[in-house]
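Our collaborator T.R. sent over the components below with a one-line note: 'Predict the complex.' Nothing else. No constraints on interfaces, no templates requested, no preferences about which chain binds where. So this is a plain run: every listed entity goes in together, and whatever single assembly comes back becomes the starting point for the next discussion.
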Amino acid sequence: MKRILIVDDEPDILKVMRFRLTQRGYEIATAVNGQEGLERAKEFKPDLILADIVMPKMKGDELCRRIKADPATRHMAVIIMTASIIGQTPEAIHKIKADGFILKPFEPQELFEKIKDLIG
Amino acid sequence: MNILIVDDEPNARKTMSKILKAKGFEVREAGTGAQAVACCGAEFFNLVLMDMQLPDMNGLEVLKRVRAINADTISIMMTAYASLDSSIEAMNNGAYSYIIKPVNMDAALAVIDKGLEKQRLEQASRQLAAIVESSIDAIIGASLDGIIISWNKGAEKLYGYTGAEVIGKSLTILVPSHQSGEISSILDRVRRNEPIQHYETIRQAKNGRLVDVSVTISPVKDLGGRIVGASGIVRDITELKKQNEKILQLSQAVESSPASIEITDSTGLLEYVNPKYLEVTGYGLNEVIGKNPSILKSGEHPQEFYADLWGTITKGDVWKGELHNRKKNGELFWEAASISSIKDPKGNITHYVAVKDDITDRKSLESAYKEAEIKIAEALVVKSEFISMVSHELRTPLTIIKESLSIVYDEIAGPINAQQKDFLVTAKNNVDRLARLINDVLDYQKLETPSKGFEMAEQSINDIVGTVGQGFRVPLARKNIVLNMQLQGDLPKASIDKDKIIQVLTNLMNNAMKFTDKGTISLKTETLGDNAVKVSVKDAGIGIKESDLSKLFKSFSQISTGKERKTGGSGLGLVLCKKIIEAHGGKIGVESVFGQGSVFYFVLPVRERRL
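Returned assembly:
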């Protein structure tokens, strides 16, 4: 079973995403900020991380940068999921080496396809 | 004084010559009439003493010839006989006097002195006459009853009358009728021996022209000291008066000028300031005259500023600029000044003139305006940050709502009935509508922020239109709407921001689809003249009322139609389109007949036609 780590400071986002993706057949773990996300990633070893950007303690882009900088975690796919489009240029996404980007709110289908493309 | 002695007796000549030389005269001698005439031809003699009896010529004949050469020479005849006849004849022919031979030298000297005195007087009076005659002023002599006695060239020129025309006539002909009493009162004053000096009045010339004159009149007395007449000197001051009036006008203009005016001498010391200068600066006249204009210096300008000012005006150029000066009470004020030099005919600077306007009010407005501009810019940044923050905060709950609705709708959390499903669709549509609204507000915000530049590149309009059209094929087919593409083959490229133009065209296509239930939507490209391309979207909707056309491109003004409500929109879509197209230097517009559909179009400039 493929594993997905969802990192978001909104408990309701975590709740609906966990339900949705569990139904799709993924094993889910969650974290409420970048710092916790980084720790969970190391122990949970997800195939894909779905990360919000604006979070306390550590932001999603920083989380992504660290995941991609660590040889132990850099194989994990990262999709940045944000409500803020300011500053989210393709260049900025590329710079933090994220594998995908999706703007909230999104069509569930769109997200499923992105995940499927990355980890099947 | 030189004297010629004409006598055929050498001894008599010698005797007289000796005595006259002793008296200081220069003396020449001639023994014959012919010699005498030759001498007079060679030089001027003040006086000739001439014997009536000469061997070669009668003395009378010699007299005539000598006088023919110069009548100013005084001729005194010497005759041995007290012949009354010849003496009288000589006198009649211009001789001054005669003396009897043998000559009594004392008596002769007395006659000679008197003759020379007469000559001197004659000369003096002739000089005076010449002065009178050559004067540019009119010099007129009159009797006490106002009859003109003398009339010089200047009078002729001023009045236009010749001497012959006026001598013997009354002075009143020279005075305009409304001043006719003037002459008698002047003559009264003359009778009382009162001189009149530089009296300004008006005289009338022969041709009727009125002349401004300045008159000086003195009484004329006879030898007994009685006043017998008047002499007047009349000067034409018409031009002078005109110039004076002009100067007066100019000085009044300067005095009452709403601008401060200061005049300095060539060393920069104040010679004049006008009342406005005093009003503005608060100084009194005697506090500034003789001072340097730098009394107003505030210290707000660097030294180089004044060096530049002086460098400019001492070169003879005009300096223009704004001066921050200080009033007497210490208050600072701004003046817009223009300073120039006044030069004499040789080109040397004699004065400097400064004309200055108080622009303190304008300056404070300017700085208030600048402050306001900064505040507006700050407010725009705050607004932009606020909108970004709000949109982010709105998106997060929307994501949760949307996701929750989808979970229920997709029956992942258990089965639901058809009616429940229908309401969930309604809810989902409105979540989407809110999301679109947030996007539009953000887009609008981005366009209002000046720093967000466009990324311009040469693009094929047909490619863009083709791509957008292609994207609409499926949704249009779902509504059974036909898409008709008419792309002009040789369309030139245009310099545009591709993403922005796609946004505009997508917006126009969305609108067209929204308002068309059946029929055809046409997407068309064409050239417009040599330097523009036009893209138009024609729908088959209900069209737009003429009264609504002008509202279309205004912020937040939605036209109220049933369709609009059903489909939802932020009211910002067309405003965004307009901003984008105008940022490209283009134009957006609509043509519509109510009930017959609408054509939305935009025109973009192109540099040159592709060959």
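Summary for T.R.: Chain B touches chain A at residues 388, 391-404, 406-407, 410, 412-413, 431, 435, 442 (CB under 8 Å).
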